[in-house]
Amino acid sequence: MEVKEGTVVSLAPNAVYYNGKEMPDWVRNDHWIVKSRNNDRVVLGMNVSKSHTINSPVNIAFMTPVSESNTPQTKTETTHPLCQKLQSSVISNNGEMQISERGVELIAKYEGCRLAAYKCPAGVWTIGYGHTAGVKEHDTLPSKDAAKRLLREDLEKYAAHVNKCIQTGKLTFSPTQNQFDALTSFCYNCGVGSLNKLVAGRSAAEVADKILAYNKGGGKVLQGLVKRREEERQLFLS
User: Is 101 an active-site residue?
Assistant: First the structure.
């Protein structure tokens, strides 16, 4: 069977991305629909269950066409809330997930925005939605849109930490976009160490319940954190 646009393919156990970068197991173990082909460079689009879209190039040598009879069938009904409303994920061309605009807006809502530099409680010059890198006294931003761009740049490293949890297997489930957004928001607010503790060895349902426990500052329950954790949990479960 020829590999062409629309062909469903499986990937070899040793498959990597076209640029040689390592491929996560959850990508390698799924079946993908070919989006386009140019000689040996094949771009994979959506998986057959339509839960993820990667738009990532892979060498055709790592692919085997799959007939419809061998393609995993998508479940049309499920009773578990964590399996409902799976949506296409925002994934970069290197195969890693990225935070969506919905996730950015959630974080922006709780961080608040200030267009003039100020010192945070820790004495660090800060601007926009919590941006600190290179900020000096008297710095200003022209608009909230500019502040939002800085926030998106800052969020890349926190999204990278969530991706690392996926790639190393610390995250025991393949996250939906909403779950990824919620975990990135949590990581941005609570830090990498707390993210690692939250997800290590836990199922999605257990993570959703445990996230509510991270609502304290200085040993005291803070209502702002209670609300943020509740909203992150709601996003995680949606």
Answer: no
